[in-house]
Amino acid sequence: MLFNSIEFIVFFIATVIGYMLMPSRLRLPLLLIASLVFYGWSGPLFLVHLLVAAGLVYYFAIAIEKAEDKPRKQMIMTIAIVLLVLNLVGFKYTSFFNESLRGLFGWFGASYNVPVLNIILPLGISFYTFLMIGYLIDTLRGDKAERDPWVFGTFVFFFPKMIAGPIERGKNLLPQLRAPLTGFNYALMTAGLQLMLWGAFKKVVVADRIAPFVNRVYDDPHAFDGVAMVFATWLYAFQLYFDFSGYTDIALGAAMVFGIKLLPNFNRPYFAVSIQDFWKRWHISLSSWLNDYVYTPFSRSRWTGLKMYNLMLAGMMLTFVVSGFWHGANWTFIVWGALHGSYVVVSLLAQKPWNKFAKNSGLTKRPKTYRALKIGVTFFLVCFAYIFFRSDSLADAGYIISHMHTGWGGFAGSIRSVIDGKLAEMALAILGIIVVMAPEWYKDHAKVGDIYRALPSWQRWGLVYAATVAVVILGAYYNLDQKFIYFRF
């Protein structure tokens, strides 16, 4: 069930009405049942599969807590995590490994008779796998295992974050679910619905308008020159951000309607001043998860024999490669992750000479110029890495990179080849980028939320109605059911 579908709108309204009418003790069971319906919409077998996985994690966590000594606790946790990882690998990466072996055998001229495997990927498997692994590790580290099946079930299945996150933590969500759930709250409901509307605007009005231009180039990069490829990559940076942050806004807003606060996932990432800063602002729930459960344990290990600084750098690279592999079963994602890891490692190694250069060149004496330069360089590096993230294959990515220098003598004609006569759609896409990014830039000077709330009532509701009309009209005209990009993961 897509957030930007008629089915979800009907489902959400019915769930909210039922939630508000229910007595306090029945609100949590209602949320769990509604969440099961939401996930089961994608297929009953996937729902049964996830119910089994959640049930095993529920009992494994209790067993970890009850175990008498640390070695036994670690053994139980290891068994549970191995089962979860095997489940993820079986569904998400079996075909990838199979095709990689086929290519390897072909490279050596050997026969490989295993047929192509078409395995259907359960929605949200990467997200709920990380959620449950984090929960098990936190239990080993001393957190209390949840005994109430209604609370635990809602923690796993809560529908706003079920398909594409945020990747929740027990410390944040479980206490909220254990407490009595409040009923109607006008302030929370209004704020939540407005945030959902803003997320739908980002997705339906802006991201989906950008998508055709990006697809046109990346579906057949050989038909375009470097200018067109660079332009499409720049557009994709905003398409991906608005698509995913739009989903997150809908998820956070929907949870807010029920009085539940989910973890934030974005904080003006395209205003980051370094790649490290970017990952503190982009997909925050994933980057913090990787930091806590991959980088930190690895960087504290002693079995590698590496010195502390080298261990830290190796941990950085490992973490980003895991991030890339988590995103998708394709070498393009692995290279994308490794490229971000390389950015971070090189920046750390070059930090001292760069700081010396910035000081000697006088950049540090012009902080605004220096900050703008760092933001520009960071955005360029992020966009360059997106070539791998968006490309269908390493061959396509290599072609794009090797031909980026072409076409600059006929800049206008190259841009026209991307637009393909759809000037109104492109104007709408560019206007949408400006509308969404302007508040993020303005946030340096004032809180946009405070400005919005200070507007007269008729102006606030006028903006709400305008956004609603835009979502409805453009969603109906261009197809409301375009999937969110991160549903693939």
UniProtKB/TrEMBL annotation:
Membrane-crossing segments per the record: 7-26, 46-64, 76-96, 116-137, 149-167, 179-201, 222-238, 244-263, 308-327, 333-351, 372-389, 423-442, 463-480
InterPro entries found in the cross-reference section: Ac/AlaTfrase_AlgI/DltB, AlgI, MB_O-acyltransferase, MBOAT_fam
Superkingdom classification of source: Bacteria
DNA repair recorded as keyword: no
Entry membrane topology: Multi-pass membrane protein
GO process terms (BP): alginic acid biosynthetic process
The keyword Acyltransferase belongs to this UniProt entry's keyword annotation: yes
GO cellular component: plasma membrane
Pathway: Glycan biosynthesis; alginate biosynthesis
Family: Belongs to the membrane-bound acyltransferase family.
Annotated protein name in UniProt: Probable alginate O-acetylase AlgI
